[in-house]
Every structure is written in C-alpha cells, then in structure tokens.
Design a protein that fits this description.
With 130 residues, the chain is mainly alpha-helical. It has one domain. 74% of the residues lie in helices and 0% in strands. The chain has five helices and no strands. The radius of gyration is 18 Å and the shape is elongated. The two termini are 34 Å apart.
C-alpha cells in the first residue's frame, strides 16, 4: 500500500514537473515565489495608509494567522521528514535552487491559505472559488 502511494506521488510529481511546463509558468512562478512576501507587505502598508485604524485589526489578525500557519507547517515538516524531490529523484527540472529544508507541507500554501482565510473571515464575505 505504501509503495503504491509512493509510485502515485512520484508519477504526479513528474507529471507536474515535466508535463505541465511552459514558458508562462517558467517565467512567472519564480517571480511570484520570490516576491510573495514583498507583495503581502506592500498590501498591508497600503491598507494601513488608506484605511488607518480600520486596517489595524485585519493586519494584526493576518500577521497572527500567518505566524501560526508558518509555525504549524514547520512543526509538521520536522515530524514528517519528507525530503525534497530534487534531492531524491533523477531529472528534476528546477527553476530556482533546491533548499535543504523538508518539503511537506508547503509553507507557501499554508501561509497563503491563512491570509485568504483571515481576510475573507474579517471582510464578512467568504471568498468564492468557483
């Protein structure tokens, strides 16, 4: 059973890594990944300057949400110990360097989810994804 899951995991990884490659993703993803925190910081500064005191609670709660999600993801990474595919698989396409941290779960995904969840909850409207 576990071996079957590993085979599915590896197949899905190669499908995404090699099969879905295109010039748009090759150019945009490293920029988005590298600028991710800068964009959030710029948005928070904009909110603070535009909405002043009304923005204080959303900004503080968003920071707390991201801190908690980041801490949780890092804790899980050290419990799961999943080595990054770029260290274990042959022929991995890399657009940016391969770090030495564990890969599961994704901090980018956890932090993005925390930001969206906090902001949608505070706005009084849940974000509709479909």
């Amino acid at each position: 059973m576990l071996e079957t899951l590993r085979e599915i995991d590896t197949s899905l990884f190669y499908l995404i890594n090699r099969g879905l490659q295109n010039i748009v993703f090759d150019v945009s993803m490293p920029i988005i990944t590298d600028r991710y925190y800068f964009i959030i910081l710029a948005l928070m500064i904009y909110m603070a300057l535009t909405y002043k005191k009304k923005a204080l609670i959303p900004i503080v709660l968003t920071i707390i949400s991201v801190a908690l999600s980041d801490w949780t993801a890092n804790t899980l990474k050290h419990l799961i110990w999943r080595i990054r595919p770029c260290h274990t698989l042959e022929g991995v396409r890399l657009l940016v360097g391969c770090t030495n941290s564990f890969s599961m779960p994704s901090n980018h995904a956890a932090d993005s989810s925390a930001i969206i969840l906090a902001l949608s909850y505070m706005s009084g409207r849940w974000v509709r994804w479909t």
